[in-house]
Structures are given as C-alpha cells and as structure tokens.
Amino acid sequence: MRELLELLEAGPSNSLLLGLAWLAGQGVELDPEEVKAATRRAELLLATGGDPRRELDLDGRAVGSMAEDLDDPVARDRFEDALARLTADSEGLAAVSDGLARLRAQPDLAWLGQGSQGDEGFPRRRPRRLDQHPDRLQR
Predict the structure, then answer these.
(1) Whole-number Å distance between alpha carbons of 95 and 57
(2) CB of 97 within 8 A of CB of 87?
(3) Main-chain phi, psi angles of 56, to 5 degrees
(4) What own/partner pairs with CB < 8 Å and gap ≥ 24 does 36-41 have?
(5) Which of 9, 76, 86, 131 is the most buried (most CB within 10 A)?
(6) pTM for this model (two decimals)
(7) According to the per-residue pLDDT averaged within each range, which of 6-20, 37-51, 89-103, 117-131 is highest?
(8) 1-10, 11-20, 114-123: lowest mean pLDDT where?
(9) Cα 5 to Cα 127: distance, rounded to the nearest angstrom
(10) Which sign does the torsion angle of CA 63, 118, 97, 94 carry?
(11) Residue 118's pLDDT band (boundaries 50, 70, 90)?
(12) Cα angle at 129 between 26 and 92, to 5 degrees?
C-alpha cells in the first residue's frame, strides 16, 4: 500500500483526492448486484443528460445517485476505517497526509469520490477532480 501512496504523492495533484478515495474504497465490500443496479441507474442518468460517455461531475446526478444508492452505515464505517489505515501508512508523505485529512474532514464528499469510482461502469470514465470543488472541499 505504501508504494501506491508514494505514487500518488509523486503524481499530479489534480488526481490525488480521487486516488485516495479509490484506494480507501477498495477496502469496502459492496454487494455486486447492488453495484450493477446502481451503475445501470447512474448510466441512465448520464444518458438522459446528453452524452453518456462524458466526463463525470461530482456535483452531477449520476455520481450522486451512485453514491446514494450504495450508501449504508456499515459501508461508510469500513470506508472511514480504510481512510484511517491509509492515514497511518502515509507518514512522511505531506500531500497524501493532507489529502487524507481533507477527505476525513468531509466524509460526504469523500463518499462521493468513492462513489464516482463504481465497480462496473464508472471506472472507464474520468471523473472531475475533487479539488475542482473548492466550495465543497475545505482546505
């Protein structure tokens, strides 16, 4: 895990927060059938809004729908635990540590970031960056 955190530390800052949300989300087991259903609904929302292959927007209906459909207290707890484990592994990595602190301070936004990474349909699309939403992510 440390190697992945080091890659995020050295990589472009515009992908750091989504990368961290994705890593934390890997520790959250979700029902595959629920993920498929949530993905289908989110893709329908993308299609009704125009181009279903367009870049995802964290403020958009599709990402919000996906995150909401997959949201439950147990999954949120596991996601927060995963963020805490990443925090413990990030000692000495200033940008990663800062990014994790920002995500942990705003769990709803972190969950949206994780939701934009859905298992079935969303990984092939590049979501907009969390840090492009200064009104939603406090520094």
Answers:
(1) 23
(2) yes
(3) -75, 150
(4) 36/119, 36/120, 37/69, 38/65, 38/66, 38/69, 38/70, 38/118, 39/66, 39/118, 39/119, 39/120, 39/121, 39/122, 40/121, 41/65, 41/66, 41/69
(5) 86
(6) 0.74
(7) 89-103
(8) 114-123
(9) 20
(10) negative
(11) low
(12) 65
CB 42 within 8 A of CB 127: no
The per-residue pLDDT for range 46-88, each reduced to its tens digit, is 888 777 776 767 677 888 888 899 898 999 999 999 999 999 9
CB 9, CB 17: distance < 8 Å? no
- Residue 67 has what pLDDT? 87
Inform me whether the pLDDT recorded for 13 exceeds 90. Answer: no
- Give me 62's structure tokens: 């599709």
Q: What number is the average pLDDT over the span 116-136?
A: 46
Q: Two tokens at 32?
A: 């595959």
Domain boundary assignment for the chain? 2-132
Sequence-separated (6 or more) residues with CB below 8 Å from residue 63:
42, 56, 57, 112, 115, 116, 127
Amino acid in position 117: Q
